[in-house]
Amino acid sequence: MENQEDTVWADEELFPTYKRWDVTFAKAEDTTITDTNGKTYQDFMAGIGVVNLGHSHPYVVQAVEKQLHEGWHASNFFHYNQQQEAAHLLTSHSCGDLVFFANSGAEANEAAIKLARKHTGRKKIISFVQSFHGRTFGSMAATGQTAVQEGFGPMPEGFVRLPFNDVSELEKAIDEDTAAVLIEMVQGEGGVRPADQAFVTAVEEKVKKSGGLLVCDEIQTGIGRTGTLFAHEQYEIEPDIITSAKGLGNGFPVGAMIGKQFLKESFGPGSHGTTFGGNPLAMAAVKATLQTLFEEKWIKAAAAKGERFLNELDQELRSLPVVKDVRGMGMMAGVELTESSAPVIKELRDKGMLVIGAGPNVIRMLPPLTMKEETLLEGVQDIKEALSSIQS
Ligand SMILES: Cc1ncc(COP(=O)(O)O)c(C=O)c1O
Fold first, then answer.
1. How many CB atoms lie within 10 A of CB 199?
2. Which of 105, 118, 207, 253 is deepest in the core (most CB within 10 A)?
3. Closest to 200 (Cα-Cα) out of 177, 222, 218, 181
4. What's the mean pLDDT when you consider all of the chain?
5. 127 CA distance to ligand 1 centroid (A)?
6. 3-state class of 35 per DSSP?
7. With the C-alpha atoms ordered 385, 130, 134, 152, is the resulting torsion angle positive or negative?
8. Which long-range contacts (CB under 8 A, 24 or more apart) does 23-27 make?
9. Diameter of the chain by CA atoms?
């Protein structure tokens, strides 16, 4: 227990922005995290949907290590071949043509919001209740959770948040001042809520007809998480802009905005930028992550394993009195309870299984795509055991 005292001491000089657990990270490999007491955890949350290839993936480590010895940063005055190569991996596997590299998900969304306004000359950004898009001013204003905005007002103008999966409200709101609709295919932070096919089809049709842009926030759902590189592929739509981050560098901080060719002139020299965006270390991580995902066919594996995992969760848990719903897409799963999920999440963590919440009563799982099927199925049994003791 002496190490826990160290943790408290260490945090005294940090802003307390995070609700931290009583666990101090020591190291991580593949799907296992070890704390400073030597206790090991099976990681069913992948650093909040980030280490899709597992922790310390050897190819990604090797690629970043090689780049470490060849220069970290020169600035975006230089052409970086690494940026072009990483961009090509994204554009050749998506409907996008051009990439802007940022350092996080919020920054990728910020770029998308700015580009949509600049290109259309319009103000209105439509997003949805319970969505999460980040904590910078634009991405925070788009986020459909009042708790995220509390105390930080005034929000920038022009942001409208509509009920999710509600076509009639959407029809009323889209007009000739709509710059973009920003949508998650599965609301992650908002409770693992997949969008309805009919709703997504309507969003695409209506926003494009109005002359606005369709922006898919694939920060949590992308990079193979749902069984395709990006989740919108499964809805058969073609966004004008896709935003990515989280799994993109398998844990190396990086974000990307991927857009259509027709948007090129609106993001000309001097219009937008960032000192660190697209630096060679981040690009080495992106290239190694994407190449590994594609060459080792992890996305296809995620689709198959995800289906099995979700079916098993459904079969084993749905009939329990405390379980209200089981839902998800690929390796993104949510179990909604009739009561707070926090005590269950803690109980599982104490037993060595890491899951997270999404809203007050959902247990969210975002395991590395590399997690073995037997480990996934053992996890289902652990959750079943924890939930079976609750009478509701
Ligand atoms: C859908 C979605 N968009 C945006 C973000 C913000 O990303 P970041 O925390 O990297 O700024 C997140 C983070 O959870 C997210 O899930």
1. 17
2. 105
3. 181
4. 96
5. 14
6. strand
7. negative
8. 23/349
9. 62
CB distance 217 to ligand 1 below 6 Å: yes
What domains, with CATH codes, occur in the chain?
2-57+297-388 (3.90.1150.10), 58-295 (3.40.640.10)
Q: Whose CA is nearest to atom 4 of ligand 1?
A: 133
- Kindly give the number of the ligand 1 atom that is closest to the alpha carbon of 255: 10
Q: What is the DSSP string of 59-102?
A: HHHHHHHHHHTS-S---TTS--HHHHHHHHHHHTTSS--EEEEE
Cβ neighbours of residue 371 closer than 8 Å, sequence gap 6 or more = 31, 44, 54, 305, 331
Give the residue-averaged pLDDT of 109-136: 98
Q: Would you state the structure tokens that stand for residue 192, as one six-digit string?
A: 């693992």
Identify any residues that bridge with 27 across adjacent strands, giving them in sequence order.
Answer: 34
Q: Is 240 exposed, middle or buried (0-12, 13-18, 19+ CB in 10 A)?
A: buried
- Give CA 326 to chain center in angstroms: 20
pLDDT 10s digits, 2-56 = 444 444 456 889 999 999 999 999 999 999 999 999 999 999 999 999 999 999 9
Q: Is the CB of 133 under 6 A from ligand 1?
A: yes
Q: Tell whether ligand 1 has an atom less than 6 A from the beta carbon of residue 120.
A: no
Number of Cβ atoms within 10 Å of the Cβ of 327 = 18
Residue-wise pLDDT for 184-199, tens only, equals 999 999 999 999 999 9
How far from chain centre, in Å, is Cα 323? 25
189 ligand 1 Cβ < 6 A:
yes
Q: Is 49 helix (H, G, I), strand (E, B) or coil?
A: helix
Helix (H) or strand (E) holding 34: strand 32-35
CA distance 307 to 304: 5
Read off the pLDDT band of 1 (50, 70, 90).
Answer: very low
- Taking residues 323-351, what's their average pLDDT? 98
Q: What is the pLDDT of residues 263-305, one digit of tens each?
A: 999 999 999 999 999 999 999 999 999 999 999 999 999 999 9
Q: What's the token pair of residue 299?
A: 């996305």
State both tokens at 377: 């199925």
